[in-house]
Amino acid sequence: MPRLAAFAPYILLCLYCALATVPAGCTGQTAPVRVPAQWAPDSTTVVRPAGPEYDRSAAWEFFWGKHYRDIWATPVTVPVLRLATALPGGLHPLQAGGSYQTRTLRLRAANGKDFVLRSVDKDASVALPAGWKRKLLGGLMKDQTSVAQPYGAYVAAQLAEVAGVYHTNPRLVYVGDDPGLGTFRKAYANDLYLLEERPDGNQTDVASFGHSPLVVNTGRMLADIHQRPSARVEARAYLRARLLDMWLGDWSRREDQWRWASFEQAGQVSYRPIPRDRDQAFFLFNDGAITRVVSWFVPKYQSFQASLSAQAVNGLTLTARELDRTLLATLQSEDFREVADSLRRRLTDATIAQALTAGPPETRAAVAKRFAPMLRARRDQLPQVAQWYYQLLAKRALLVGTDKAERFVLSEPGPGLLRVKMFAQRPNQADSLIMERTYNRRRTSSLAIYGLAGNDVFELTGRLKSRIRVHLYEGAGQNQLVLPAASAAIAGITWHSNSADKFSQKRRGITVRPNPDAAATANTQSWMKRYRL
C-alpha cells in the first residue's frame, strides 16, 4: 500500500480528467485571484483574505473537498510589518528559501538574531516536475492548499505551550511593497506571512526554546548522540512532542521539521525537541468524493476529526518513523502511559478554549466552534493513542549504540521476556549503564541491536528462549559475542558478522550470517544515511 502513494498524483489526474463537471477541462489550472488589500487610514493594518481563490462552487467542493475554504476566503485584519522599524535597527533580508510549497525569507536583526517570514499561502505544484505533469496537475495541487488551516500555527503554538513542548511564536503579518525587501521585493511584496524566531544557535533569551545556549538541527543532533554515549535525547520530552503531533493531526514531521535545544551539564549533553513548521496541523483532506479515494492510497493523509484509530496513528507517524524508532527506543509501555496521562491532564477544556482565541478576530468564532469539540475528544483518547503507537514501535524494536565501545547484556528475567542493558565501556573504571529495557514477546516479535563503531561486546547471559527474534549487528571495530554456559538454553539469536570466520563456535540457537548491511551499519556516518537530512 505505501508504494501506491507515489501514484497519487496520477490517480488525481485520471479522476480529474474523467470529471465532465469541471469547466476548465483537464488542465487543473486555476487563475489566482488577486484582491488588493484594504489599508487602514493610519496604514498600520490591512484587511484581506489569505486565499480567496480557494472559494469554489458547491460542485467543486463535492468532488475536491470543502476543506478550510471558508477560512481562507474570510477577510482578516492583519498588522503591517515594516522591516525598517519592526525592531530597533530594523530587519534585513538575508536569504530566500522554503520547502517544496512554502516560501520563506530569512531576516536578521541589528542584534544578530535571526527571524523567518513564512508565506501563509502555499503552492504544492512546485513539487511536480516541470512539463506536462505540472501543466495538467499544477492548478489542482495549488487548489489543495485549502486542506491546511491557514492560521493553525497560531493555535498549535498556544497548545504546545500548555502541553509543555517547546515551540516557535508565529505572528501573522502583512508585508507590503516594502523597499527594505531589497532584491527580494518582487518575489515577496504584498502578501501575508508568519513571522517567527529562527530556532538556531544561542537562544538563551527565548523561553519557548528553553533558554538553550545552543539550538541545532536534526543532523547535528543525530551525529552527536550516535558518536558518543554522553549525548542523548530526552526521550520522554520527544514522546510528549510526538503525542502533541498526533493530537493536532500534524503528519508532516520529517527530520527537517525539528530543531533541538541542547543543554550541557557535567560533561553530558541532553537534547529536547523544538517542533517547527506547523503547516499541516488540523489537516483536512477526506471531505471530498475524490480526495477521500486518494486518501486510501496515501496513509499519511489522515484528516483531522474527532476520533482516532490505530490505522490513523500509523499514518500520522510515517514521516518521522525512523526518528521515532531511534529516539523512543529506550522507553517502556509505562513511559508511554505516563506521558500520555500527563499530557491529557494538562490540556483542560479551559486551556483548549483559550488557545482557540489565537488568530485573526474574524475567524476565531468559526475556528472555536469547529475545533473545540474535536480537540476535547482527541485529548481523551491520548492514552489509547500512546499505547497504539507503543505497540507499533515495539513490534519490530530497534536499539542503536554509538561509535564508542559499548557492552550489550541480554538476559531473560522471566518467561517470554527479554531484558537488554547497554553499558558504556570505560577504561580502568566500571562500565556505566546507559539504558535498560525489558521486551515482552506479546508485544515484540523481533529486536535488532546495532553496535556501530567501537569495540563492542554482545553478552548473552543465562537462558535466552523468550521467542523474540534477536538480531545482533556488529559495526566497525573489534567486536565480541560472549556466550553463556553450555548448559544454558538459547534460541532465536542471529549474529550478523562482518567476517565469516570471526565467530567459529557453533552453538544451538545461534545463527551466524554475514552482515547484509555492513556498509550502512559500520559507524555513525554510514548510519546517518537512513535519515532524510
Characterise the protein shown here.
Helices cover 29% and strands 22% of the residues. The protein has 16 helices and 22 strands. The strands form 5 sheets. The protein has a 5-stranded antiparallel beta sheet with strand order 4-5-6-8-7, with no helix packed on it. The two termini are 25 Å apart.
Tell me the overall shape: elongated
Main β-sheet, in a few words? 5 strands, antiparallel
Total discrete domains: 2
Report the structural category.
alpha/beta
Poorly predicted sequence stretches spanning 5 or more consecutive residues: 16-33
**Number of helical runs?**
16
**Portion in helices:** 25-40%
Give the rounded overall mean pLDDT. Answer: 91
Strand arrangement, major sheet: 4-5-6-8-7
Rg, nearest Å: 26 Å
Strand proportion, as a percent range, falls in: 15-25%
Number of strands: 22
First-last Cα distance:
25 Å
Q: Helices and strands in order, then pairings?
A:
Elements: H1 8-18, E1 38-39, E2 45-48, H2 58-64, H3 69-73, E3 76-79, E4 91-97, E5 104-109, E6 114-119, H4 132-143, H5 152-163, E7 171-175, H6 185-188, E8 191-197, E9 214-217, H7 218-227, E10 231-233, H8 235-248, E11 258-265, E12 268-275, H9 289-297, H10 310-316, H11 321-327, H12 333-346, H13 349-355, H14 361-380, H15 382-395, E13 396-400, E14 406-411, E15 417-424, E16 432-440, E17 446-450, E18 457-460, E19 469-473, E20 480-482, E21 493-497, E22 510-514, H16 524-527
Parallel strand pairs: 10-12, 13-17, 14-18, 17-19, 18-20, 19-21, 21-22
Antiparallel strand pairs: 1-2, 2-3, 4-5, 5-6, 6-8, 7-8, 9-11, 11-12, 14-15, 15-16
Helix pairs in contact: 1-9, 5-13, 8-12, 12-15
Keywords: Signal
Signal peptide: 1-20
